[in-house]
Write a structure and sequence with these properties.
Number of helices: 20
Helix content: over 70%
Mean pLDDT: 83
Strand order of the largest sheet: 1-4
GO cellular component, one term: plasma membrane
Number of strands: 4
Keywords: Cell inner membrane, Cell membrane, Membrane, Symport, Transmembrane, Transmembrane helix, Transport
Order of helices and strands: HHHHEHHHEEHHHHHHHEHHHHHH
Distance between the termini: 48 Å
InterPro entries: Na/Ala_symport (IPR001463)
Largest sheet: 2 strands, parallel
Pfam families: Na_Ala_symp (PF01235)
Organism: Alteromonas stellipolaris
């Protein structure tokens, strides 16, 4: 009965209703136009802000730690298993639409991260907290909508998404080594507990160390495989384009599947517009001292996640022959593809990679849920204990659940969050445009880029006057 309800909601959001596909495309185009193509016009500036981005304080984590924390949540099953799901259900053309939603999503990610930094607050420990619930409450004065978003986020990032990550880890390890799912689930719980007990700072330190290492290592392997198969690259790229527009023989009927699965899995991977990343953006000490700097940093995260890491997995799968059918295939398709390139060691490599990728997401998901405890006055010992128990329990459930059911619940949670968040950020377009123009003008004129309250007109106000 629960699964029927989840399927009905997903059918409206992702299926025949296509509500989210339309909203995401429209939102990406909207902010691309309103911000003057910031993701293309200021592409190099994203990277320049990494210089000096490792400065933190007792109030917040560094910009680099915020980037790594957001990437640790993004970089997980979506990059390895999600790409495989997209290809298995939508063909190679799904990758093209994954790229398109990433390019548009960079503008959306910029917009929501600016708001996350602008409307941040201090918790009882004096540390920065923020996210959609905070800018909806303060900027739009819509407490009921802020509460609705927080509940969706608790359901998604606090519980369901970690179950998805655990499910993929156990599936990969079971496929490679026949490890029993329940024991793998217990191991994940034990390791996650050791890290999340340190709160956001502990999670950020873990992400800062692990994410660059695992990301660079994975991309280097993908580049090696691509180089070895370089003669097949032109044909593969042409196949992606033809499949994306239904130009293959008997491929017209697959056009909808390519678009749907490419956008759906692209969003799940890079999370642009879903409202998750603003939590990491809000926790950062910006450099330069302007909310828009976090927009650039998190826009870079969308690029690295989808255009670099997801593309790496897609090339690995497609250069091995790919797969397109009506049956959902996840991490095992990626493992089989890697094995065709690297021999028996391919399965071992993917099992290790997905375990590390997905585990970082498990840990970062906890931080996003914890950030919203402040909204309900539960950022205390009892509130955190109750939240932690529920979070760990869902990891154990996800480790043993059936893959289609887990992914369906994740799609519903992500979809509901995205509907609320996109509605809010479009509503707050005047603030986003105003504060962005302030940054652009100061940067272009050579003036010191710094923001102070009153520099431009914003909707609502920060409840404790941080800015």
């Amino acid at each position: 009965m629960i699964y029927d309800f989840v399927s009905a909601v997903n059918n409206v959001l992702w299926g025949n209703g296509q509500v989210l596909i339309i909203m995401l495309l429209a939102c990406g185009i909207w902010f691309t136009v309103k911000l003057g193509g910031v993701q293309l016009r200021h592409f190099g500036h994203m990277f320049s802000l990494l210089k000096g981005s490792n400065k933190s304080s007792k109030e917040g984590i560094s910009s680099f730690q915020a980037l790594c924390t957001s990437l640790s949540a993004r970089v997980g099953t979506g990059n390895l298993a999600g790409v495989a799901v997209a290809i298995s259900l939508g063909g190679s053309g799904a990758i093209f639409w994954m790229w398109m939603i990433a390019i548009l999503g960079m503008a959306t990610g910029f917009a929501e991260s600016v708001l996350g930094q602008l409307y941040k607050v201090r918790d009882e420990n004096g540390e920065f907290r923020g996210g959609p619930a905070y800018y909806i409450k303060q900027g739009l004065n819509k407490t009921w909508l802020a509460v609705a978003f927080s509940l969706c986020l608790f359901f998604g990032y606090g519980f369901v998404f970690s179950a998805v990550q655990a499910n993929t880890i156990t599936d990969a390890l079971n496929n490679a080594y026949q490890f029993p799912s329940e024991y793998t689930g217990i191991a994940i719980i034990a390791l996650a507990s050791l890290i999340v007990i340190g709160g956001l700072r502990g999670i950020a330190r873990f992400a800062e160390f692990v994410v660059p290492f695992m990301g660079i290592g994975y991309v280097l392997v993908a580049l090696g495989i691509t180089f070895i198969n370089i003669s097949e690259l032109p044909a593969m790229l042409m196949d992606i384009i033809k499949s994306a527009f239904g130009l293959q023989e008997a491929g017209a009927g697959a056009l909808g599947a390519a678009i749907k699965n490419g956008i759906q899995r692209g969003l799940y991977s890079n999370e642009a517009g879903s409202g998750s990343v603003p939590h990491a953006a809000a926790s950062a000490v910006p450099n330069p001292n302007h909310p828009v700097s976090q927009g650039y940093i998190q826009m870079l995260g969308v690029f690295l996640d989808t255009m670099v890491l997801c593309t790496s997995t897609a090339f690995i799968i497609l250069l091995a022959g790919g797969s397109s059918s009506d049956q959902m295939e996840g991490i095992r398709l990626t493992q089989d593809a890697m094995s065709s390139h690297l021999g028996e060691g391919g399965t071992d490599f993917v099992a290790a990679a997905i375990s590390l990728f997905a585990f970082t997401s498990v840990v970062a998901n906890y931080a996003y849920g914890e950030s919203n405890l402040h909204m309900f006055k539960l950022d205390n010992r009892a509130g955190r204990a109750a939240y932690t128990i529920g979070y760990l329990g869902m990891i154990y459930w996800g480790a043993q659940a059936a893959m289609p059911q887990v992914w369906a619940m994740a799609d519903m949670a992500l979809g509901l969050m995205t509907v609320i968040n996109i509605t809010a950020i479009v509503w707050m377009t005047p603030t986003i445009v105003s504060i962005s123009k302030d940054y652009f003008a100061k940067r272009d004129s050579g003036e010191k880029v710094e923001y102070k309250t009153g520099d431009c007109e914003i909707q609502g106000k920060s409840e404790d006057g941080i800015w």
